Amino acid sequence: MSNPNEYGSIEQSIFIAASPEVVYDVVSRPEHLNRWWTDEAVYQPVPGGSGYLAWGDRATTRPTEVTLTVVEAVPGERFSFRWIYPRGETPTPENSMLVTFSLVPDSGGTRLTVTEEGMREQGWEAAKLEAYYLEHVDGWMRHLADLARYAPAVVERVDG
Please, how many CA atoms are within 13 Å of residue 156, restricted to the half-sphere of its CB? Predict the structure, then answer.
């Protein structure tokens, strides 16, 4: 088994053929998340906004709900939130993961980097930590690809 210290954070980047402003809306507004990532998203996309995300068949092998609290919302630049599973508790730095979407203009589009951190701080046994990490690495890869397909369609609807 690998060293569990290797599983402390996930970082993945992808190019999206849409402006940082459009990508920001797509990663921060619940009505967009429901199109590329979640089955249900209910929250206010402002610092301190809280609510939940829910997945059924789209993302997981089992229904999943998480509580989230928005940490940072800087239009066109960064959107972050803390989430905790299962749904119910209030996410804090001690009991939750921090997910951050960072956006940088790149070649007429956006370089989006997502990070998820806080896994080691949960005090999980090595096998649980590794399983969570691997499941989320796979999930982010799949959903970021869906996001890269969805965001340009938002641009077309706005421009068209």
Answer: 6
Residue type, 18: A
Quick one: what percent of the chain has pLDDT higher than 70?
91
What is the tally of helices (H) and strands (E) in the chain?
3, 7
What domain count does the chain have? 1
Q: Which of 45, 35, 94, 40 has the alpha carbon at shortest distance from 69? A: 45
The single residue listed with the structure tokens 């997502």 is 114
Q: What is the CATH number of the domain that holds 125?
A: 3.30.530.20
Q: Which domain holds residue 100?
A: 4-159
pLDDT band at 159 (very low <50, low <70, confident <90, very high): very low
Cβ contacts of 57-66, under 8 Å, gap ≥ 24: 59/139, 59/142, 59/143
Read off the pTM.
0.91
CA separation for the pair 160, 48 (Å, rounded): 34
Quick one: how far is CA 156 from the chain centroid?
23
> Does residue 34 contact residue 56 with C-beta atoms inside 8 Å?
no
- Helix, strand, or coil here: 44? coil
